[in-house]
Write a structure and sequence with these properties.
mainly alpha; 2 helices; elongated; binds zinc ion
Amino acid sequence: MTERTTCCVPFCRRSTKERYSEWICSVHWPMIPKRTRQRRSQAKRLLKRARQRLERQYQRQGSVFTTAQWGRVESAQRLESALWDRCKREAIEAAGGLR
Ligand SMILES: [Zn+2]
């Protein structure tokens, strides 16, 4: 059997063939407040830009980057992951009827 990724919401049996580390299905995703989803996609874009920027700096500087340059990517990663956790929490809460 191929590995599938199942939805983060407990007892939800939906899954995707994509191999994400974590995933929220199309039924539970819209239950997350729009504001949270928007903030998360913003954070994703920010992280992508930060990585691209570091890549350019790395190339331009002769295959090196500074701690400060790396730090910007790292904080973008932290923000993105915090918002993903919040998406999960809010989807689980909404699915469980906790609000
Ligand atoms: Zn689900």
